Amino acid sequence: MPQLDKSDAKIETFLPDFCHIRIVFAVVIIAELLAFVLTLATPSARGGDWGYLSLVSIYIQWIALSSTATLCWLRARLNRLGNNGAALAAFALLLAITALFSELAYQVSQRFGHGALSINMSHLEFFSRNFAICAIASLLTLRYFYLQHQLKLNIEAENQYRLQALQARIRPHFLFNALNTIASLIRRQPQRAEEAVEDLADLFRHTLNSAEARLPFSTEVEIARRYLDMEQLRLGERLQVDWDIEAIPGDAALPALTLQPLLENAVCHGIESIGRGGEIRVRGMRHGGRLELSITNPLPAPGQEVQRRRQGLHIALDNTRQRLLAHFAEDGKLSSAQHDQQYEVKLRFPYQPCEPA
Fold first, then answer.
1. Which of 16, 18, 121, 354 is the Cys-Cys partner for 125 at CB 3.0 to 4.6 Å?
2. Per-residue pLDDT tens over the stretch 38-49
3. What pTM does this model have?
């Protein structure tokens, strides 16, 4: 796929999407908390007045919602400015809107003010006070958004690193076995050797060229089937696979290279360690918006499995568990259990259609 498509993708700064209802709701809550703080900080003659709190809330909410609407409207332009430019522009915009509403509030108070509507300070004092509060609150908020954005980038970078580590992991371990298998087939079954080379090329085309953080479930299954086809050349009838995954939609999103490493574990820590081999069962279930995928493989007799392999099993499972958590938060879970000489790994994750690349 052309790389230019990705370079032309939308540019985003650390500012969140102020058009999103979740961000708007957060702004309303923060503005109301600020109104409470300012009311409590007001001298006792007015600090306990609910009418005064209402006026402060209305005033701050007007500033907050107007700023949010303006930042939403200017989002595309702000994104083109980069982080520094967007921060300065947003800061100046918030100060300008605060100045506008401060002037409006003061003029209304001068003309109609009495009781709670009166402002008992000079024009300059009122203006400077609001300007200073806005500047401090805006700087703290922008700093918070920046730190959140940096955290998000760090998580994405770590996920990309884990994906690259998985891609590197499949190369030497599996590649050498596959090449040895193909070499043994060249003289005995040249046609099958040619098909094996095509399978190997197709598998590595998916695993090595895939830069997407997520892949549709159908692509994950295709990668897994290619891998199992190659392993079956080496293990023969010792490796049997039973698929029952019709319940899972083909467009369901999964972190890239989720299924293949789990099946590789089932082969290396189960089938390969058993002289007679065995069957790997892959089951898929759907419960409304929740999906469940289980992979079950037989285990060798107690004491026969190499300790090094068992350690590798836990590393792979922990890696997959962390990647599910990074993509789906608490909705993505991986569990494993052993019963009756069978080892089962279960993935639970929400159904989220994978966006086309």
1. 121
2. 888 776 545 456
3. 0.58
